[in-house]
Structures are given as structure tokens and as C-alpha cells.
Write a structure and sequence with these properties.
alpha+beta; Beta Polymerase, domain 2; 9 helices; 6 strands; NT_sf; Nucleotidyltransferase
Amino acid sequence: MRDLPVAVKPLLARFTSDAGARVPLVALWAHGSLALGDYQPGRSDLDLVALVGTELDGAQQAELRAVHERLIADVPLAGSLHCTYVPQGDRSDTAQHHPTWAQGEWFERPVTPVSRRELALGAVVLHGPPPVGLLPGVSDQELAEFIRAELEDYWHPVTGNAKAGLWLQDIWVDLGMLTFARASVTLRDGQLITKREALDELGSMGAPTAVVDDIRRRRYGTDLLNSPSASAGFRARRAEQARQFVRAGITTLLAQHGNPPPGPAHASRLTRRTPPPA
């Protein structure tokens, strides 16, 4: 098992204890940047999946929501802790939505093929057995179809002129560029890469150098507190460069991998993706 960063050990230990005191917690796993070795305290999300012994009723869901809210009040990093609660048992419906805490809200969403592939490749086991055999597996075809749909139904529409204002925000520039690079690698060779590796990939793809350097500085720089704020002019140029690069790249990528260029008739099949996760 990958060693946990010192900064998150107390938070994860408390969460495991508090959640386990309120629901029958069979297992708790971390995926995403924590499992891939790319976790940055204060910048990355803590992406968790909990396997529970029963379907959660309304009272149990309310108690779990209170657990998350208390953690946020007590521990600064808890605001980035997200968890989906999956009942143990039927593994046939991979699109089933499950109770989830993320982005400060309680709602329902599925465990995506990307998340399940991350868990299969290298979950950090925080409690109970590992996920292999307890969650549905992910074929290369399912993974590729999910990524194509995400690009076509979600990311391409938000690169349109009507959404240009979103790209003035750091989070949209970062996740738009990094998601496109990561998706490109997965569709090309079936591999999942980290956000740090995606920055290197962007460099080889001809991405705007100033945009890539800005993302690297903000996500991996060591002295962010003393870094100068970007000017309004730079943000405007960065927004347009990133948006146009991602838009053109998605159109080309989908054409290369079997999907026609996306059009306005497509409706998003994704849920709870505004704003995107960090």
C-alpha cells in the first residue's frame, strides 16, 4: 500500500472512525491523486469510496452528512474530502447512483469507470479488504466509451463561446487542459496518468507554453503565497488560449477514436460536474 502523506493521516483516521461508528463500514478506499502518488496537500481532492453493508436509509445519510460537516469545521483539509457510499452486494448495475458527499454537497452519483479502474490498479486501502472482486471490473472498451462520452457531452460544450467566461477561472483552465491530456493518453494506449504527467504530455502536444507553465506553477510550485497574482490581461489571454486548444483537441481526438465531432444536439450524460473537481 502506498504510504499516506503525513498531512492527511489524522483526517483519514478520524473520518474512518466517525463514519464507521454510524454505518456498517465494510471497506474504505482512496483513489485519484492520493492513490496515483500525485496528491498535493491543500490543492488536491481526497477521493474515497466506502463499501457499506446495507442500503443507507435517510437517517444514516443524515448522520454521514453531519460527519462531513463537522470534519470541515474542525480540519481545514476536510473540505476536499469526497466520498461515495456503495452498498455491498449487487455488482451488475455499474451506472447505479450512490449517496455521495463532494464539493460541500450531499447528492447521488455512480462510481465511474475511471474511478473503478483507478481502484483496481492501486487503491489505498484505509479499512477492510481491497476492492478487487468487490467492485465491478472495467474493460478497456467501457473505459474508452466513458471517456469519449465525457469529452463529447461535457467538455466540448463548455469550450463554446457561450461558456467563455468560465475559463477566466483557474479551476476551468487547469481541469480542462489536464483532463484533455489525460483522456488523450487513455484513448491512445489505455493508460491512466497523473495530472503532473499530463502537464508533460501537454508540452509534447503543442499546448500554449505560457498556459502550461502557469498551471505547473500554481499546482506544483513551492511558494504560492508569494507568487504574484495574474493580471486581468493575462487571465483573458490564458482563458482564450486554453479554451481554443481544448476545443480543437477534443474535436480531433474524437474523430480519431471513432466518434463524430460533437454537435449542439448532444445532451450531457454526466452529473454533478459544475464546477469540475480539483
